[in-house]
Design brief:
The chain is α/β, with parallel strands linked by helices. Helices cover about 35% and strands about 25% of the residues. It has helices spanning about 15-20, 45-60, 100-125, 145-160, 170-175, 195-205, 275-280, 325-340, 385-400, 405-415, 425-440; strands at about 1-5, 35, 40, 65, 85, 130, 135-140, 165, 180-185, 190, 210-215, 220-225, 225-230, 235-240, 240-245, 260-270, 285-290, 295-305, 305-315, 350-360, 370-375, 375-380. The longest helix has 24 residues, at about 100-125. The model has no long low-confidence stretch (mean pLDDT about 95). Bound molecules: flavin-adenine dinucleotide (FAD).
């Protein structure tokens, strides 16, 4: 008999701002008795919800139970900047690109995941305020950022991908911001309200056959022929389980010392007054990722209370998978500096929300889609692009578990495992020193 004790529960620092903007929802459904199912999916982020959706498509009448430690949209899936990117987005590369042939198949796979999400959005009645394929701009504030954009543009050209180069005046016209010297627009990115998307997906999936339990952290697993999934309120027994917990795969005892736990951070302003929105100018909504991967992401969004600006920057390597409130406060200074530099016309606008969230990366930029043990599957390690890669891993893990073959699945199964990291006492200071150095090099793009 296999027994797995879960060593750590997820801890999400700061408020889940996107979720806070949405109306209150139904009372939480927690596991409060023993039950059985055909499938258990652990984790209700992009990977878990995509896995549940794909299972429900493949296995008509099967009962699927999805469990999460927190409420849907309170974890990383509801805390991100909402860029569902189709093109290569390797955070460890200087310009996001990698090897040409790999990037072409990666882009095709990413688009498959975005199409899958688009169908969910359509089937579950999500509007363009939740999911819209509006594209994104890689914005450059420095000569170095501009050079990154040119390298990336050359890479896109070699891939046969269209793009549009924007000068400083065009950047101002679109965003209202004079700070940027150039931009590179690509059309294939979907921009989402992440909390609304995962809440919409969970609500749309929920039925007699698909049951979603929140605030139900899994404390352990036992294999006695079936898998028994333990929570404080009861056990769920099923022959097959998909782990869609991203970096918490380590907490279930798998891939020790092969997953890098990184946090990134965001702040969101209070609502702008109509006068402030007018002073800003530009389009009503837009999304800008930094030309330098270590730079600052910015979005202008609409919310029921008024327009808002989201700022995201900084990465820290935290193998403990937890960060302190003090960290959130110290990163807040980087957000305020980035906001002030880009939005001098919005003096006096304060931040209403500040938060952080987990990413999981591997040194060789691979995800983990595999059968870990008999009937136990993984859809984890999304390398910082979890909206897209998480969706893809969830689809592929469900296909692996149901014996549904495809070239995409073959590619995922042929990928190497995440490579070993140096011991933690070396990896933590070394990785944080490299991140700091890269962030310093990003200069005004940060
Ligand atoms: C500020 C910020 C900005 C970001 N911006 C972007 C972006 O623009 N685009 C992008 O693609 N990505 C972005 N990301 C990353 C993205 O949010 C993650 O990669 C993505 O959420 C990973 O999806 P997932 O489903 O694999 O994992 P998660 O979203 O982490 O979901 C895993 C779930 O498993 C649950 N879980 C863990 N352990 C247990 C347990 N023991 N029992 C039950 N449940 C458990 C967790 O509560 C969690 O809800 C950003 C992240 C942050 C923090």
């Amino acid at each position: 008999m296999t027994r797995i004790a879960v060593t750590k529960k997820p801890v999400d620092p700061g408020p889940a701002a996107w979720n806070d903007l949405l109306p209150a929802r139904d009372p939480v459904r927690v596991v409060d008795e023993d039950t059985t199912a055909d499938w258990v999916v652990i984790g209700a982020g992009f990977a878990g919800l995509a896995a549940a959706r794909r299972l429900s498509q493949q296995c008509g009448s099967d009962k699927i139970v999805v469990l999460d430690a927190c409420r849907v949209a309170e974890g990383p899936a509801g805390r991100n900047s909402g860029f569902m990117i189709d093109l290569p987005h390797d955070l460890s590369s200087s310009d996001y690109g990698g090897a040409l042939d790999k990037d072409v198949t990666l882009t095709a796979d990413n688009r498959h995941a975005i199409d899958f999400a688009a169908t969910m959005a359509q089937d579950f009645g999500m509007g363009p305020d939740v999911f819209a394929r509006t594209g994104k701009i890689n914005a450059a504030a420095t000569a170095r950022g501009d050079a990154h954009n040119r390298e990336y543009a050359a890479h896109l050209m070699a891939m046969g991908e269209p793009f549009e180069v924007l000068d400083s005046a065009q950047m101002k016209e679109r965003t209202g911001i004079s700070y940027y010297r150039s931009g590179l627009f690509t059309a294939g990115t979907a921009i989402i309200q992440p909390a609304a998307f995962v809440r919409g997906a969970a609500a749309g999936l929920s039925s007699n056959r698909v049951q979603i339990f929140e605030n139900s952290p899994v404390t352990g697993l036992t294999h006695d022929g079936d898998w028994v999934v333990h929570t404080a309120g009861g056990n769920v027994r099923a022959p097959k389980v998909i782990l869609a917990v991203n970096g918490h795969l380590n907490s279930f005892g798998f891939l020790k010392n092969r997953l890098m736990h990184v946090f990134t951070y965001a702040s969101m302003t209070q609502p702008l007054t109509p006068q402030q929105s007018a002073r800003l100018g530009g389009a009503a909504t837009w999304g800008v990722t930094p030309a330098d991967p270590m730079g600052t992401t910015v979005r202008r969004i609409t919310s029921p209370q008024g327009d808002r600006i989201l700022i995201r920057n900084r990465f820290t390597f935290d193998p403990s998978m937890e960060v302190s409130d003090q960290r959130i406060r110290s990163v807040a200074q980087d957000h305020d500096r980035a906001f002030k530099a880009r939005f001098p016309m919005l003096g006096g606008v304060g931040m209403q929300y500040r938060w952080g969230g987990r990413l999981c990366l591997s040194r060789n930029n691979v995800s983990v889609v595999t059968e870990l043990e008999d009937g136990l599957y993984a859809a984890c390690c999304q390398n910082g692009l979890g909206t897209t890669r998480g969706t893809l891993s969830g689809i592929l893990a469900a296909e692996l578990a149901t014996g549904t073959g495809s070239d995409r699945l073959d590619r995922a199964l042929a990928a190497p495992a995440p490579v070993l990291l140096p011991p933690r006492f070396i990896a933590k200071p070394a990785a944080n020193a490299v991140l700091k150095w890269q962030e310093r090099k990003a200069g005004a793009d940060l």
